[in-house]
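subagent[fold] <- orchestrator: predict structure for attached chain, return tokens only, no commentary.
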Amino acid sequence: MPLISSIRALLVGAVLLLLGQPLAWGADAAGAYTFRSYGPEQGLRNQAVTGMAQDRDGFILAATEDGLFRYDGNRFERFGMDQGMFSDSIVSLYTEPGGRVWVISNKGAMAWNGATPDPLAKTVILPNEKIFTMGASMAGSLIVTSAEGVYEGPPDKLVRVPGLPSMDGGAVWIAPNGQESLIAWHGDLYQRIGRGAWTAYRLPVGSKNELIHTVIKDARGRIWLRGPRLLLRMASARATPEDLSSTLPGAAMLRGHLALDPQGRAWTTTTLGVARFDDRGIWILAEQQGLPTQSAASIMFDREGNLWVSSEGVHRLQGRFMWSAQTRHQKLPSDTVWNVARSRDGVLWAGTNRGLAQSTPKGWVVLPGTEERIVYTLAQDAAGNLWAGGNNAKAARNALLMRPADGSAFRSIPISHLEGPGSINSMDFGPDGALYLGMMSGLHRLVRDGDGYRGEAVSLPKGGNKEQINQVLRDPQGRLWVAGANGLAFFDGHTWRRFGKQHGLLDSHIETVAVDQAGTLVVSYWNVHGMTQFATNAAGLLKATQLATPVNLVSDNIYSLGFDAHGALWMGTAQGVKRWKDGRVEQFGRGEGLPSEDAAANAFWADSNGDVWVGMASGLAHYHADAQPGTAPLPATHVLRLEDGAGASLSAPVPEVTWENRTLTFRFAVLSYLNETRIHAQVRLLGFEDAWRGTDIREARYTGLPPGKYRFEVRASMSADEYGPTSMREVIILAPWWRTAWAAGMAVIAAGLLLFLFMRWRHGRLQRGNAELAALVRARTEALEQANAALHDASMIDPLTGLKNRRFLGLSMPDELARVMRQFRASHHARDGVNKTLLIFMVDLDHFKAINDTYGHAAGDLVLQQASTALRGACRDADFVVRWGGEEFLIVARNSDRSAADVLANKLRDAVRDLRIDIGNGVILEKTCSLGFAAFPVLESEPEAYAWEDAVKMADQCLYAAKHSGRDAWVGVVLSANAPNPGPRVTNALGDLVAEAILPAMTSIAPEQALRWR
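subagent[fold] -> orchestrator:
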């Protein structure tokens, strides 16, 4: 064993010597950024995107050869010649300083008609001419380069500029104030100051044969020129150009593209990634840094600071460069990072599931001999010695790793007083210089003993030898804090003290603790949502303050706490990372660039420059303080369309809707792209409802409205507490004829006539007697009719769950099927299937029989009742939720979008997943369900080819595929608009059709797991 240890020590030393220890701080491994990609699934059916822009309303526009696509934060919508565009083939987009977007093709350019009215909307300039580039000032004056020459002036009065050559290309730039203009063409740069004459400056000889595609000025006033292979930078038009072409990783993909970021830095695209230039030089964003594609055609920064890259599809960098991730792609030995710390020599260390790793400029290096060790904790003593602890299941005894301050190799330090292997959860050095180890078996102490070390158990006040210790922390004042299962312990170098509920703690079991430079201490709890903040002094805790608001501050389990260099409190949780500063909570997850949303316990490190490192279940997250963007604007909303009950789009400012078509559907967009999954939208219809209500979909539907004037309002937030501006749309529902003034007059006349007849009736005894008898008969008849109606209703309701039953479905479906068929016939030339389809879901509770067998039928009935309530709550009021039999349910989602079937399937599955069913005696049951779904009509092109019962059979086959493939999943088969007729096998051999690739299947089951249909 001594020989093996010596060999390992030599290997470690050799590795570190090769790395050039010690390393300067900042020589860390470069992380990767995460992107969200958009393609056909989001409606971008043509992925060859040649340009992007953001219009003045906030929509993202993408130019393709198949039209213009607009992204509204939810889906892309195509605009082609059928929607009023002047061409389907869009070459590029240009955005004026004032926000107007010009759509450029080989047949001129057109002003984009956004949601906000524009007097120039759909104005086409230079029709049938091939336009290369455009430039504009804030005043709206244009300069346009085309194959016929250079034009200048207002859009409706463009005139040819004399003295400039006809150009087979060229690029143009205009200062926002219009006081300077630049045109680059082959080997010449033309400059004009104000309204003066154009002055030509010769560019380098090599640029004469290079077509200049883009010219811009950065924040420092430098001129940038880009061609297919050329990149020039000039301090001014008169200055000698600096050729930066050789610094680029590749040539331009389609055309030389340049863009400025919010800081005014120049960016350009290449076939091997994106390049950014700043005072430190060039930085490349390529596949190694997380770019989803090898090449980039164009880039754009939106008004929130998001970077968009077009190539094969559109890709948005998540997190605005605030977060990067270190994973096995950066040579971490494992994606699970339990601890991160920086030693005093500037080296960053990570404890992982497969050893201790050191960060180097070329990536992470795992220390030989630690591959079989899980490293949970790191500490450095006053002498500079670095210690690592964790778990080694193959070791007969517990041991630590220690690297002397004057050495480069780690050696093993046995903990002699402990029997058998164990886990060291946390450790730190106390004010007495001893190393304190927090373990599942209590707190232990390691002190120097001659040439070795001696260990001993520490008896904490009100503790025990087997108390679970979660964290050991030395604060900036040198005091030691211990978070354990029996409370918070404190050691000042002389005396141990213990703090519990009587001192202000919410619970005795402490998960983690953090102390800032001023001595403010914060603790979180093992299984209690909440945090407590304490002021401290030399004796320990003083005043306690419970941190319970805002709600999202403590709504998740908190596994790690730490303060950064600026005093902000960071929390690692099961739902990502949170930062709390000045009463404001920010939450970061995958959508903000983290590699995972599951933080590891105590895996937090704060650098002195404000950077933060957080260990996660799937990597190491790095927060870049210097990339912190400004506060993003609150999300804006737009009401896109208003449709009546007949499906007609209402474009009038305040449309009037007839009584028969008074069902209203408002479709809206939320124009924020920081993280679409965090958006909270709220709607209300004033005149019908005054309170705001949340919604997860981008539409609101209202049925059965009485006549009157209504105002629909929508707003959105990223944090559910601070909402952006409200968008609104007014509408009037007209009264039916029988509620008009003339109808009321007729009713008065009829009432008078009835009164006259009634008076005559009173004067006749016989007539009065007959009337009394008739009234008695009528009362009895009405009572009988009410009783029959109640019996009829009861016959259609399942008595256990309160849901509708099969009889209800049999009576209701004929009318519903007739309505669907009418809609499909009426919308033959419209978009097929959008909100006209019936989505049919078969839902089966997993392992339900085991509940009856284990807990009895009463418990099973309770599960059925609560599952029914959850499914009904996940559906709209208009949907049919039916108990099909036993633990099976059938759901008919009316007026649905075929493409959104997977969204509702997830919602139904999550509704059952989230149930916590208390059946008594302290037993809480959790359930899952399996789902299968299909759409009716089965085939949009042939609505009458299949009966709705065939769709039920398809959903039933999908249900059994979900159950045979592992349960807690959904499987669905929804045919696209152009799908061929698969024949009768859809009702009994659906799995074969999917296996033969005749029909596609949607499923929540991982792609690597094959579906089992039998």
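orchestrator: received. Logging for downstream: DSSP finds nine helices and 72 strands in the chain. Residues 1-25, 829-833 have pLDDT under 50 and may be disordered.
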